[in-house]
Amino acid sequence: xxxxxxxxxxxxxxxxxxxxxxxxxxxxxxxxxxxxxxxxxxxxxxxxxxxxxxxxxxxxxxxxxxxxxxxxxxxxxxxxxxxxxxxxxxxxxxxxxxxxxxxxxxxxxxxxxxxxxxxxxxxxxxxxxxxxxxxxxxxxxxxxxxxxxxxxxxxxxxxxxxxxxxxxxxxxxxxxxxxxxxxxxxxxxxxxxxxxxxxxxxxxxxxxxxxxxxxxxxxxxxxxxxxxxxxxxxxxxxxxxxxxxxxxxxxxxxxxxxxxxxxxxxxxxxxxxxxxxxxxxxxxxxxxxxxxxxxxxxxxxxxxxxxxxxxxxxxxxxxxxxxxxxxxxxxxxxxxxxxxxxxxxxxxxxxxxxxxxxxxxxxxxxxxxxxxxxxxxxxxxxxxxxxxxxxxxxxxxxxxxxxxxxxxxxxxxxxxxxxx
Length: 420
Ligand code: ATP
Ligand code: MG
Hints:
- By secondary structure, this protein is α+β, with helices and mostly antiparallel strands.
- It is built from 16 helices and 16 strands.
- Helix 1 packs antiparallel against helix 6, helix 2 (about 50-60) packs across helix 4 and helix 6 packs parallel to helix 10 (about 230-245).
- The longest helix has 20 residues, at about 15-35.
- It is elongated.
- The relative contact order is 0.11.
- The protein binds adenosine-5'-triphosphate and magnesium ion.
């Protein structure tokens, strides 16, 4: 490759056929299972107004503060490639009045996202997520359904050793009190906190709980926990979610320190990890966001969802058995006269949903048969001058080695009558 060769952007990936077939089977499984749970697909644009994300995801998050691909277009609009889907889906929900159409809207997506992060295994700048968003119900039944759906998909695609971590971050009222308690607790430690945590102390102290720094984790070991600040309704809601998980025989780990720092996040919050993955072990994050729709200008509407990283899922799925679609018939064409007949016959067989290939390199009989063999076809049809003249094609069964003659105008019916 010389230095004029154009290469893809760092942190982006080409998904070549050998891989894309694994993607397809994962996507098919996701579509199948989400539909069993009554979720329908939503597709939103690749870019949105920047303010949707700064408001909908939050200025203080890593995503908005340092990871967005944003630009001003020729018309002076501030635009951003979507770094996550919940804000876009909530925007679409509001814009199209979906709440009026139906009291509950259960949506799913499979989409490409963009974040300018440091690329590494399981972390890219263009990556993919599938996720669901359920709008309209504040009740714990939907929390349990959303979690069951995630778990069910992960198991059905062959993931092992999953761990569901779950907590409730309560209502805004609970968090207001908790925030004060956390600040009180951290005050004496302020000078020992990292610069980032010091910044978060005032505007978003809950995010300090996300720290990965060992000495901060140490300090936080004695921090107050949010469950002591739940309102009665928060507690009832969470207990019900847990009760339903027990009924569904879904194992979970209670994680009193699992939080989300954004104001519109409420109550149930969860993540699913897999020990099949290394450092980037989070497959999926989710939770309730009862304040989001209202914050984006819609009517107050409860919602809950999750998002799972497709690349990480594929990394975590061992022994992906996806098989290439098999070519069933190879038409061997010999000589100039046969070419038109070959291309026509291939088209007719394909119209009958029979996967058919023919040689486009004008190779010899031997080379074409070798190719057919390599493709592991069921049959080869041989058409040359002799066959054209006698109107009798040569049909070779690759599994038995048998060869027979079939009339040109009967071949499509004949092939149709066979099972492959
Ligand atoms: P992390 O802590 O790994 O950065 P996150 O909190 O940014 O994750 P979310 O925004 O909740 O992740 O996204 C949900 C899922 O999307 C993650 O659990 C992960 O599987 C996947 N994901 C997030 N960022 C990336 C990325 N840059 N490349 C590939 N997958 C990603
Ligand atoms: Mg991240």
